[in-house]
Write a structure and sequence with these properties.
Layout: H1 6-23, H2 27-51, E1 60-68, E2 73-79, H3 83-100, H4 109-128, H5 132-141, H6 143-153, H7 158-186, H8 193-198, H9 203-220, H10 229-236, H11 239-264, H12 266-271, H13 273-292, H14 297-316, H15 321-352, H16 368-381, H17 388-401, H18 405-430, H19 447-465, H20 468-485, H21 487-490
Antiparallel strand pairs: 1-2
Length: 496
């Protein structure tokens, strides 16, 4: 099995399923085929995670074929202790998106499921690519199916939100391409990521490329002030689109910092670190206050993502072992908890057709199981001890205190604001008097919906109570990242 091109199979299996969907005539058949394909992909990703060797920082399951040798372009794949977790997360959320769309998508079902398969392949490709040109192809191509998912199956202002999403991310992608070309010409005319990591670049080159990459990745994260596309996209996107955005696409900006900015541009990364820490601290607090003011459930969770992603970029640019470990864990955690919150918002929207928070109230009596699970994911998002969110946030805050007391204080304040808006959301939605009589007669979670929530719930408590397996797989890769970045970092702590 190890001799098989497992990463290529993982990436292209969803694309192979597209012709099968095109031949299907019934919507139910399309749904079942998509589910089977993405469950199979998830099983492959799980097998890769189980077979992954946690004792080495070397890229594993590597594949390499010439593509355009004259230009130094190759089809090169491989994964390390960081990317293996995001492959798993992407594959997990893929089949959950299918089940979440089972009854909510009733128009152009075949086209919708094809878009899900295509974007799944492209997202998996991003986390596997070891050639910068190949990475860019996957990175850029993702815009198209996401644009279609928002623009065709979204809400009443879907076209505006889709165009805004596309234009913001396209601008970032163009700057990313410029940075790639600069590295190509200064790195020996190769797009090999590992070779570019081993290269040495003058500070002016590093600084210019860092700024280009910064804008590209900041749009994806999104960091303040590049965040304005996110609430519109989330509000208008269907449930599956919001899960993909929150669970995977936002992580790709932070992944870019980890994969390219830190190891390839270490001097520039250190030079701009105070600015990045400042922007991250602003995002944590500002995003929290924006979430606190929202009356739309999706907008509240979207702005909470701005705040939570601020924790991630803050941890990355502390250049401490605690900060980096916490940032990577929090990337995974955010995909679990915020993906679950958008799932539950979609489930309740199917029942009430409203996202207006003040119109809810007193639903706990009608939907007690929904209320219990929703509360669990809200507590995880608040980083309550015993949940996955606590592990990531406490490591980020600990790492930040080592380099910036005021930024760590801002992170603590942001966490308190998060507790305020999340508890307020739960109180208004599920407690108190019923404001709309029909909400007293809602149906509770069904089996399909429980199947969606169950694996996410498992990771909330598994990572919250026993994060050692995650840290064990991450450890050698993180040590290698530290050594690539700068000797300054190595003395700033030990791996948790």
């Amino acid at each position: 099995m190890m001799d098989l091109p497992l990463l290529s199979i993982l990436i292209f299996l969803p694309l192979i399923g597209v012709p099968l969907l095109l031949l299907s005539r019934r919507d139910n058949m399309v749904r079942w085929l998509t589910l089977i394909i993405l469950v199979a992909d998830f099983l492959i990703a799980t097998g890769l995670l189980i077979a992954f060797d946690p004792t080495t920082a070397q890229m594993q399951f590597r594949e390499s074929l010439p593509w355009v040798p004259a230009l130094g372009i190759g089809y090169k794949l491989g994964i390390d202790g960081i990317s293996v977790w995001f492959l798993f997360l992407t594959a997990l959320l893929g089949w959950i998106c299918v089940l979440a769309s089972w009854t909510s998508i009733t128009v152009r079902v075949k086209e919708f499921m094809i878009n899900l398969l295509v974007i799944q392949s492209l997202m998996l490709g991003v986390f596997c690519a070891l050639d910068l040109f190949l990475f860019y192809v996957f990175w850029e191509a993702m815009l198209v199916p996401m644009y279609l998912i928002i623009g065709i199956w979204g809400g009443t202002n879907r076209v505006y939100a889709a165009f805004k999403f596309f234009l913001y991310t396209l601008l970032g992608s163009l700057l990313f391409l410029i940075g790639i070309l600069v590295l190509y010409f200064h790195g020996g005319r190769t797009f090999d990521i590992l070779a570019l990591m081993a290269g040495s670049y003058d500070f002016p080159v590093q600084a210019g490329v860092f700024i280009a990459f910064l804008i590209a990745f900041a749009v994806k994260v999104p960091m303040v002030p590049f965040h304005t596309w996110l609430p519109d996209a989330h509000v208008q996107a269907p449930t599956a689109g919001s899960i993909i955005l929150a669970g995977v696409l936002l992580k790709m900006g932070a992944y870019g910092f980890l994969r390219f900015s830190l190891p390839m541009l270490p001097d520039a990364s250190h030079y701009f670190a105070p600015m990045m820490i400042g922007l991250s601290a602003v995002a944590i607090v500002y995003g929290g206050f924006l979430a606190l003011a929202q009356k739309d459930i999706k907008k509240l969770i979207a702005y909470s993502s701005v705040s939570h992603m601020g924790f991630i970029t803050l941890g990355i640019f502390t250049f401490t072992l605690n900060g980096l470990s916490g940032a990577i864990i929090q990337m995974f955690n955010h995909g679990i908890t915020t993906g679950a919150l958008f799932l539950f918002v979609g489930l309740i929207y199917e029942r009430t057709h409203s996202r207006d928070i003040p119109s809810y109230g007193g639903m706990i009596k009608a939907v007690p199981l929904f209320g219990i699970l929703f509360a669990t994911f809200l507590l995880a998002s608040m980083a309550v001890p015993g949940t996955n969110g606590f592990v990531g946030e406490i490591l980020v805050i600990a790492g930040t205190f080592a380099v910036s007391g005021w930024a760590a204080t801002a992170a603590v304040v942001g966490a308190l604001i998060g507790a305020a808006y999340l508890l307020g959301l739960y109180r208004q939605m599920l407690l108190g008097p019923v404001r709309i009589p029909g909400n007293a007669k809602l149906w509770d979670l069904r089996l399909r919906e429980l199947v969606c929530a169950a694996p996410l719930l498992i990771f909330v408590f598994w990572l919250g109570l026993y994060p050692k397996p995650f840290l064990s797989i991450l450890g050698p890769t993180l040590d290698n990242l530290m050594s690539q970045t700068s000797p300054i970092i190595q003395a700033q702590g030990t791996r948790p």
